[in-house]
Amino acid sequence: MSDRQDDVGATRESPERAKLKSASERPGFLPFHTNAFDRVFIGVVILIGIHLLWLRFMEPALPIEVATVISLVVGYVVVRRG
Amino acid sequence: MRNPRTGWLLLSPTLIILIIFGFMPFLYVLVVGFFDWNVFAAEDGMRFNGLGNYRRLVFDDLFLHSVGLTIRFAVFAIVSEVVLGFLLAQMLTRKFPGKSLFRIIHTFPLMIAPIAVGAIWRLLVIPGFGPVPFVLDRWFDFTYQIGTYPDQALATSVIMDVWHWTPFVTLTMLAGLSAIPREPVEQAKVDGANRLQVFWYVTLPFLRPVLLTTVFIRIMDAIRTVDEVWMLAGGGPGTRFTGIYIWRVTSPGASADWGYGSSISLITLYLTIVLCWLLFIAISGRRKGEVE
Q1: Most A CBs within 10 Å: which of B51, B266, B292, as the mutation test of the A interface?
Q2: What structural domains does chain B harbor?
Q3: CA distance B62 to B123
Q4: Min distance A16 CA to chain B CA atoms (Å)
């Protein structure tokens, strides 16, 4: 219960929590603020999306393992620099 | 109450129930999605299929059609409900004669079960029996048959959903509007802001959390709509008006093949999460350069 409520009922963050948040949130190439969980989540969403698109359009030409490698690389970049 | 251990202890019953009834079934569906498990197969039991179910899914024209249809249904219904709900909530913040009665009547559709809503609307739109096709034919010379034209079936389903769920949006918006403090609004008016500017720069930012929650609930509901739409049109004409879950429940391939059915459920969940997440980014103001 570290957050407090102001008069209008909106939750206001405590200074400790804001400090923690600013430590996990950092600027990256993604067009919105992200924390570590967001970036992992985006990585998983991209991984699933790439695999589904690969199954539909690319699999006759290239095996699915290529999609796995590409999505892992993209996921790593998003987690590290997103 | 500062001790985190006490907090975890108090949370543990909820967490245990969530893990048993939420997380474990999800994991089970995730695993089954990689298996071939048909109840009518000659061989009993599950056989590992890898990505076979998903491969079958991305080439399934009926599934892809149902995804497109569901998204169209959800977008039309939710946009209409949010706009109408906001306008009605604005109206209900003011005083007018019969306001209490209007508020009670307006929330009636919420109390009706979706299957009954479908039945009521079916009675309204059955050709040769319902008043809607009769009136449209007599007064406007317009042929209205949801059993023949898929666009009419979609439009009717959207209108039915709007009729059923707008009161919910109105109530949440009303709660959000009531929580907005008067001072910022009055301050903006004193500073010379017009009504549109007050709405855009004061009301809407205060309404954001309510708006997000409402839209999320409605997206999840609209994507898994089965009963009322099925009752209204029966997935027709033919198979041209089957949303994802109607198709999931009624298609023999999807309902007897549990592995395939699981993969459909997971992809639907994936679509729902992606849609909600994109909306969250768009509405919540987490974009760079915006003041939180």
Answers
A1: B51
A2: 47-284 (1.10.3720.10)
A3: 28
A4: 14
Out of B58, B181, B281, the one facing A55 most closely (by C-beta) is B58
**Sorting pLDDT into bands at 50, 70 and 90, what band is B86?**
very high
Task: Give strand ranges (E) for A1-82.
Answer: 4-5, 11-12
Read off the pLDDT of residues A20-59 as tens digits, 9 standing for 90 and up: 555 556 677 777 778 888 889 999 999 999 999 999 999 8
Contact status, residue B184 vs residue B202, Cβ threshold 8 Å: yes
pLDDT single digits (tens) B207-253: 988 998 999 999 988 888 888 888 887 766 665 666 666 666 666 66
| B46 burial via Cβ count (<10 Å: 0-12, 13-18, 19+) | middle
DSSP assignment of B64-113: HHHHHHHHHHHHHHHHHHHHHHHHHHHHHTS--TTHHHHHHHHTGGGGS-
Cβ contact, residue pair B286, A33, below 8 Å: yes
What is the ipTM, given to two decimal places? Answer: 0.74
3-state secondary structure (DSSP) of residue B134: helix
Q: Which residues of A touch B (CB under 8 A)?
A: 1, 7-10, 27, 31-33, 41, 45, 48-49, 51-52, 55-56, 59, 64
